[in-house]
User: Which sequence fits this backbone?
């Protein structure tokens, strides 16, 4: 593996190896001393063209805990503001010999394009509505640690499927790991032909949530809906917001997940989001650091070995 651009096409053994490695970093991240020197002397650059709290911070923490040097490019203060393109910016950074570039971009496919222009490892921190591979890995790790394994679990991904890179990466990884995947959304937010990705599609929450082990909620990505129909918040919450009444259709021990950022009272009721027995939303954030340590160790470490 030279880059981490997508989950689609990832061999099952590779996904499991990454999850196993990440699992090993969970206890490490809880210890008083969190730093290792596995990436000492390596450089990781975070290049985020869209806002982020979880992904950027956890990549930064992960790189620091592995002993790497980390640079966070401040796009607002970079030469992108003077008209430099994403590719030229990446090639400029590449000339400074980083070992890994973590990139978030608003356009689907932009991170792959960029990976073809640089020498270092490229990790996709989310590209448009295409993929968000580390989110799917941290979601799988969260589920695996709670439920033992993913094979045979029924997972519902609910909400704005049409604009969600999280949904796409999760659909691929959950299928690779043997889960049964359902998507639930209003007809306007269900991409035509979504079943071809290996999911069963529903437009009714109670029907779709029947017997589910995992309920994954998604934010309405209004920033990607320009020129499209945007549902009213009140109407959306009534039919698609996760509250305890709708959740009653899922299994009694179903876990509640959300990749964040969360809009309480829109796609999820605040009582459900904070349900201490079933909500694993904070655990997902914790797993994010472990997963990003695993992928950085594999990719930035390998890049360094190749140039040695
Ligand atoms: N889940 C996720 O990608 O969150 P951020 O946008 O805060 O990184």
Assistant:
């Amino acid at each position: 593996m030279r880059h981490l651009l997508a989950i689609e096409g990832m061999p099952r053994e590779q996904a499991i190896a990454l999850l196993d490695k990440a699992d090993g970093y969970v206890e490490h991240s809880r210890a008083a001393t969190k730093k290792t020197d596995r990436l000492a002397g390596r450089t990781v650059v975070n290049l985020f063209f869209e806002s982020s709290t979880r992904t950027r911070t956890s990549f930064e923490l992960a790189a620091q805990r592995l002993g790497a040097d980390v640079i966070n490019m401040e796009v607002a203060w970079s030469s992108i503001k003077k008209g430099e393109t994403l590719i030229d910016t990446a090639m400029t950074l590449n000339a400074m010999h980083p070992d890994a570039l973590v990139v978030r971009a608003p356009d689907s496919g932009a991170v792959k394009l960029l990976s073809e222009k640089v020498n270092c490892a490229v990790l996709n921190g989310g590209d448009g509505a295409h993929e968000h591979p580390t989110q799917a890995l941290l979601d799988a790790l969260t589920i695996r640690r709670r439920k033992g394994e993913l094979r045979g679990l029924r997972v519902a991904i609910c909400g704005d499927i049409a604009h969600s890179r999280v949904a796409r990466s999760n659909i691929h990884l959950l299928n690779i790991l043997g889960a049964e995947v359902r998507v639930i959304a209003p007809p306007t937010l269900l991409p035509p032909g979504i079943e071809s990705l290996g999911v069963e599609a529903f437009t009714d929450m109670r029907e779709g949530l029947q017997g589910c082990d995992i309920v994954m909620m998604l934010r309405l990505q209004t920033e990607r809906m320009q020129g499209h129909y945007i549902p009213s918040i009140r109407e959306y919450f009534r039919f698609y917001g996760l509250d305890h009444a709708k959740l009653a259709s899922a299994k009694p021990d179903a876990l509640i997940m959300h990749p964040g950022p969360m809009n309480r009272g829109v796609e999820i009721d605040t009582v459900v989001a904070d349900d201490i027995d079933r909500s694993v939303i904070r655990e997902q954030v914790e797993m994010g650091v472990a997963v990003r340590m695993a992928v950085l160790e594999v990719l930035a470490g390998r890049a360094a070995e190749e140039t040695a």
User: Anything to note?
Assistant: The radius of gyration is 19 Å. The beta strands are 43-48, 69-73, 100-105, 121-127, 154-158, 180-184, 200-202, 214-217, 255-257.
